[in-house]
Amino acid sequence: MTQPLWGIDLGGTKIEGAIVPSLDNPQPILRTRIDTEGHKGYEHIIHQIDKLVQTMKQQSGLQPARLGLGTPGVLDPILQTMKNCNSTALNGQPLKKDLEEKLGIPCVLANDANCFALAETHWGVVKEKAPGAQVVFGIIMGTGVGGGLVVNGHVWNGKHGIGGEWGHNFLDESGGPCYCGKTGCVETVLSGPGLQRYYKSITGSMLSLKDILAHALQGNDQAAIKTIDRLNHFFGKAVSVITNMLDPDVIVVGGGVGNIDSIYTAGVESLHKFIFNNRVDVPILKPSLGDSAGVFGAAALVA
Ligand SMILES: [Zn+2]
């Protein structure tokens, strides 16, 4: 009998845990969550993860052999410390080592976009609509922009642990400064806050993404239409880099901005202009697992 898969998704506000029977059977044995309380610092985050794992043991009557952990940033493969986390308490910390000491089991870490791509590959839309895909690229376009790469069913971390980190590729100067220290990253242009900033730069008013979209669809707010047209244009331009470099079998787009329908029509038309090919065959799909992808992907890390 195969060992059940234990996964933890470490988020900014919640830490979620799930126990999944196997890759063939994703129906969770248990799913539960706890507050991260990240403002109390790194040691407290470790304490909360341990507390959640102990609760999962008690409630399931099972013991984990290994633990998969989805994190906001990545573990540097050389330094073995965390980096690029927007939950900044984690940066510079040996999270894997500390957790393995605390829990007494091996832990496998991956960033949340990689977990998203992995979950959608094994249990989500890729399995439904592009079965047999060897190279899957997952995009999360929300508050930030992240990317994750899955090759032959496994996360591709890369030499620096930044495999798939497309969100901080240069896209356009107009995006302005990024938190990462560079300017014009994909994230500054395609994230929700990036779209809101652009709308504000034309109109002087800050609107929610939902309102900008609604105004664009109503057709009477030229600035909103321009904001969404710009999104579609740059979505195609940014995704062309992925297709020209990796030529994946399928691309899955999650996050709040990923829900905007026009990127699948006008955005793909834009991709057609920038791709080094005379047609676009790669399916660009919406995910099917919703918020569950993070914790399920974390569990799939230990399969
Ligand atoms: Zn950046």
Automatic annotation (TrEMBL):
InterPro entries: ATPase_NBD (IPR043129), ROK (IPR000600), ROK_cs (IPR049874). It comes from the Bacteria. GO terms for molecular function: hexokinase activity. It holds the Pfam family ROK. Transmembrane segments: none annotated. This is ROK family protein.
